[in-house]
Structures are given as structure tokens and as C-alpha cells.
Amino acid sequence: MARFSLEEGNAERRKRSRVGRWEEEACSKRGEDSELGEGDDQERTGIDEHEIGLEGAEDEAICHERGESSGDAGVCVRIDPDVLDCSICFEPLQPPIFQCQNGHVACPSCCSKLSNKCYLCSHTIRYSRCLILEKVIESIKFSCNYEKYGCNRTMPYTEKHAHEEACSYAPCFCPVSKCYFDGSREMLSAHFINEHTPYVRFKYDQVFKVELHEPLGMDPFRALYGDDGHLFLLLNDSFAGPGNQLSMVCFRPKSLKLEFSYKLTVERHDSDCASCLKFKSSATDITEWHGSYPRNVFLMVPSGFCTPKRMIAVDVCIRKIKHTAAT
User: Is 165 in a helix, a strand, or coil?
Assistant: First the structure.
């Protein structure tokens, strides 16, 4: 059984280039040292073999790092990932893979779009399958790119993109300006409460109060830290015209089957009358925040609802509304 290690760039091209250099150097030495004896030739040959042996040792070390032993009838090789993608749509090739009479391959979707005519040589693709490439692709196992964040899944190459789109270990990025931290959802929450202030701790299904500055740009958001470790942002768009637009987002991958609803209440008390604004919606899942605000779901708070200290006092309640096993 073969184990494949994917790496950027064309490994085979680099290998040919390296071997070519050795051959050029050897030819040059033969021209300069044509009078050397057989013993010198053997010494020079020994050096080349030693260099090639180091290459093999490096590959074997990679296999051992991944827990793969050399005694299980397997080999560890490297392959350029570009050869595993369709040359037309650049999506991962997956069986069935068809080829023309000259061996050019394309994915089934592109074959249909091109009316079964080869995009390189214009020969007809008669549904002749490239079985060897299918076997190579099926044998490749790929580690998730989010392994350093805790994901230990290994999957076929054809499933890599779909898995990473839904991976629960996808990194989240710190929303604080000029802070470049990234990590899993749990890592981001721990980073934020240890490195940044202020934030508000809360318990689900309980009302708690948050105060936001009304003046422009003073409070773009207020961080809310749940008792289960989820990090929320109560966004305060104070550039939205005659008032402030309030909305809420939650830092977590979209694949997690846990949803949150929130309710915002802002009251106004003066000598004439009492009025109240109420708003209920679902928190938007995000992994990073670039300073943009929702334009279709928000609570508009007019300037007249601010306190004498030009603060917006908001009663907040966050609830878990759905919880199923993550995929």
C-alpha cells in the first residue's frame, strides 16, 4: 500500500532538476579528470549514492513522524496536489475519471460541458476511464488543515474541501483591531478574556444589562462571554444615521448544530412618557469580524433613548434554541 504526502510545487520537477545537476557535475568532472583512476571513480560514485540515500532517509523520517513504520509493506511518497485536480475547473478529480486516446483527463462534469471533446487535443473522449489515476486518488489520505487547532480527522483527498468547510475546528480570529490571534473557538474565547477588556459574563436565559457609548466610534462592539465558553459580540453601528443599530454575532464555525436567539430591550424614561424598544433575532455565526455590520437584521435605537450620560442601556437575554450532535 502506498501513502502519499502532498506538498506545494512539483516535487518530481525538483527531483529531476537535482538529479540533472548531479549529472552535469559528473560530466564536467569526467572532462576535467579523465586521467583519474578507477578508485577515484568509485569514490565519486559513493558520494552520489550517499546524497541519494539522504533523500530516502528524509522520506522515511516523514513516515515515522506520522506513525507509519517501514515494516508494514507500505511506501511513503510525495506528489504535487495539482495533478489531482481537474485542469479545467480546478476541482478535485474523483471517479469516474475519463480520458481521451492521448491520455488527457477531465472530470465528468467538464466532459459534459465540453461535449466530450478533449480540451487539449480535441479528440473525442469516449468514456474511457483512467483507472490508474482513480486508484491513486482513492489511496490518498489527507489530514485536515486545521490539525493544529485540534482536528484529527483523516479523509480522502476528494472529501477534503467539503470537510474543511464544515470542520468544527475551523479557526476564529480576534476581532480587536491590530490583534492577529487565531485559533479554535475555545482558544479564541480564552485568549479574549485573558488579553482584552472589557467584556460581560452572562448566563443563558437570564436578562443582563449592557451599556454602550452613543457617541460615534466609541463602542463598535461589546464582547459577551457565555458560561459555556462561547464568545458573542453585541455590535453597535453608530454610523447608521439618526441613531445606533444593534445586532449580535457569535464566534464559532457554522457547522456546529447549536443555535442561539437573543432579545434586546431598550427603555426610555422621561417626564412625559415611558417607551420601550424590543427586538428578537438569531445570532449570526462568524469566524472573523472585519468591522462590517448587518444591514438587514438590527435594532434601531434613536438618539432620544440615550441616558443623560449619552449611554445606551440595553437589557440582553441570550438563549440556546437548538442543540444536536455536530457532524
Answer: helix
Q: Which sequence spans correspond to the domains of the chain? A: 2-79, 85-166, 172-323
Distance from C-alpha of 250 to C-alpha of 321, rounded to nearest angstrom = 14
Question: Residue 210 pairs with which residues in a beta bridge?
Answer: 314
pLDDT per position as a tens digit, 33-49: 444 444 444 443 343 43
Q: Is the pTM of this model over 0.70?
A: no
Taking domain 85-166, whether its CATH number is 3.30.40.10 is answered by: yes
| Paired residues of 280 in beta bridges | 263
**What is d(CA 305, CA 273) in angstroms, rounded to the nearest whole number?**
12
Question: Roughly how many angstroms between the first and final C-alpha of the chain, as a whole number?
Answer: 30
Sheet holding 258-269, edge to edge: 208-213, 311-323, 258-269, 274-282
Give residues with Cβ within 8 angstroms of 275, minimum separation 6. 267, 268, 305
Dig out the grid coordinates for 292 from the structure.
Answer: 462590517
Give φ, ψ of 39 to 5 degrees: -60, -40
Q: In the block, which residue shows the cell 437575554?
A: 317
Which of 233, 245, 235 is CA-nearest to residue 287? 233
Q: CA 20, 1, 52 angle in degrees (round to 5)?
A: 25
Q: What is the pLDDT of residues 247-258, one digit of tens each?
A: 999 998 876 667
Closest alpha carbon to 112 in 121, 123, 100, 125: 125
Domain 172-323: assigned CATH number: 2.60.210.10
- Which tens digits make up the pLDDT trace of 277-314? 999 999 999 999 988 888 888 999 988 888 888 889 99
- Whose cell is 448544530? That residue is 257
* Structure-derived torsion over alpha carbons of residues 253, 255, 256, 262, reported in degrees to the nearest 10: 70
For residues 238 and 215, the answer to whether their CB atoms sit within 8 Å is yes
